[in-house]
Recover the amino acids of this structure.
């Protein structure tokens, strides 16, 4: 049976331009949510976002690749470089067909796409660049990483909005079980352009609060929606025995369980299925709820959806039965990058035996149900973490991570 | 403008790749295939797009396939500009 472990991590997020910057920001409560700076968003319903600042892709990738890709892909290029270096892997030593790239994506390259569409409307079809054909679509990042690193195995893209970052683990485990030696998995999104933001606003789930420190407060009595963000994380995933065959015996954690469910259609009268996703993931890991030391919640920041998640967590683990971590209060919801970044935070929490806090929750609304870790990191004995993610449209996913096999 | 020079074409290639590398390209690369110069089929399409835009030409997909080197593209463009 495949025992998938994480051997390398790379991060580009509102919390930092590499893994340790991110982790330092998370433990010190340094957030990346601020007024949108890439364009004038003052007349939009949402004016703040979790933004990656100081990002210079040209320091890592050739200018030619930057020209033909959207920002979402450039973020992944840089995170992937860090993950490979961290995993100490020489890709030239592995057959190209034995390596795969599996990313999550939810927005596509909307910034690139908007630029080319404006040329189409403004100047005509002849003005649209050739790279429009490959830069904007969901699989663009997977494809570019596959070409750049010569990874030609069973590549794919998971398009389940914010749940995608966890679905990547399920799909990666599937391909490793077929004998693939190494997967580059994770997710990045970058949809903070006028067109990208407008598309998101249509769900009416975004926060209209203009104060960055109050705009995204999941499980708070004042929750009024979520703040969007950009960035994400990439991870190197291998079977533990295959990793050992290249003399790698240390790893961040073992992806011990995974499950995905979809919610019933609205108005059906049937309950949402996040609870079932948690139970199935625990069963997949052969873990009891009592073994779980921390839950990294999805944290939508929308009152009804917060209620559903609090109900699901307390139903499985008991009222205040497990500490709940919410580092995404520092970044907003990163869509395809969100759960991948949460996975990184969970793995580092297991490494350092500390639970990262939620920042900015002034009036916890579900105190009888949730033991939300607030304001300060909480040292704890951590062996097993559960990650939760929901994607717009009814997607749920849960992952169980253990520090050791 | 009735004709374009190799320098003009190299400038467009440089713009398309977003680099200054055309500066180092010289006449001895004009018969080297685009692919060998690091321009894949999409990059060639991008060059053609720019050429069409700048010189008001219309180049068919069938013709694009025959334009495999800077020299052949230059000859094709100038032939069309002369006929226009």
């Amino acid at each position: 049976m495949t025992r998938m472990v994480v051997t390398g991590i790379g991060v580009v997020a509102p919390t930092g331009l590499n893994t340790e910057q991110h982790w330092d920001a998370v433990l010190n409560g340094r957030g990346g949510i601020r007024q949108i700076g890439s364009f004038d968003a003052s007349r939009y319903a949402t004016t703040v976002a979790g933004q990656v600042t100081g990002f210079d892709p040209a320091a890592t990738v050739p200018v030619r690749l930057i020209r033909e890709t959207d920002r979402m892909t450039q973020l992944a290029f840089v995170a992937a470089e860090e993950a490979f270096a961290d995993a100490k892997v020489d890709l030239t030593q592995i057959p190209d067909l034995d390596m795969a790239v599996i990313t999550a994506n939810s927005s596509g390259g909307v910034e690139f796409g908007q630029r080319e569409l404006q040329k189409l409307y403004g100047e005509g079809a002849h003005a649209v660049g050739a790279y429009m054909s490959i830069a904007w679509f969901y699989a663009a990042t997977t494809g570019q990483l596959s070409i750049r690193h010569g990874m030609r195995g069973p590549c794919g893209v998971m398009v389940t909005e914010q749940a995608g970052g966890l679905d990547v683990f399920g799909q990666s485990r599937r391909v490793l079980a077929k004998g693939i030696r190494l997967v580059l998995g994770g997710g990045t999104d970058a949809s903070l352009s006028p067109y990208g933001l407008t598309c998101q606003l249509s769900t009416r789930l975004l926060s209209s609060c203009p104060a960055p420190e109050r705009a995204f407060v999941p499980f708070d009595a004042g929750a009024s929606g979520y703040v969007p963000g950009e960035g994400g994380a990439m991870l190197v995933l291998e079977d533990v025995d295959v990793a050992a065959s290249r003399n790698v015996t240390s790893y961040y954690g073992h992806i011990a369980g995974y499950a995905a469910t979809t919610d019933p259609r609205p108005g059906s009268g049937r309950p949402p299925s996040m609870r079932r996703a948690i139970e199935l993931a625990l069963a997949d890991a052969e873990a009891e709820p009592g073994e779980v030391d921390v839950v990294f919640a999805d944290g939508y920041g929308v009152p009804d959806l917060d209620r559903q998640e609090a109900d699901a967590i307390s139903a499985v683990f008991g009222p205040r039965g497990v500490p709940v971590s919410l580092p995404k209060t520092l970044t907003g919801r990163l869509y395809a990058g969100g759960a991948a970044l949460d996975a990184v935070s969970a793995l580092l929490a297991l490494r350092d035996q500390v639970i990262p806090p939620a920042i900015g929750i002034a009036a916890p609304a579900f105190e009888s149900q949730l033991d939300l870790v607030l304001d300060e990191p909480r040292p704890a004995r951590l062996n097993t973490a559960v990650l939760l993610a929901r994607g717009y449209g009814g997607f749920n996913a849960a992952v169980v991570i253990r520090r050791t096999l | 403008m009735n004709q374009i020079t190799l320098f003009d074409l190299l400038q467009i290639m440089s713009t398309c790749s977003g680099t200054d590398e055309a500066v180092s390209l010289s006449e001895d690369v004009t018969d080297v295939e685009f692919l060998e110069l690091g321009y894949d089929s999409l990059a060639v399409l991008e060059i053609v797009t720019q050429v069409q835009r700048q010189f008001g030409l219309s180049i068919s997909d069938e013709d694009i396939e025959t334009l495999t080197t800077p020299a052949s593209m230059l000859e094709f463009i100038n032939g069309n500009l002369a006929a226009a």
User: Anything to note?
Assistant: Residues 45 and 64 of chain B are 8 Å apart (CA to CA). The two ends of chain B are 11 Å apart (CA to CA). The mean pLDDT of chain B is 84. Chain B has four helices and no strands.
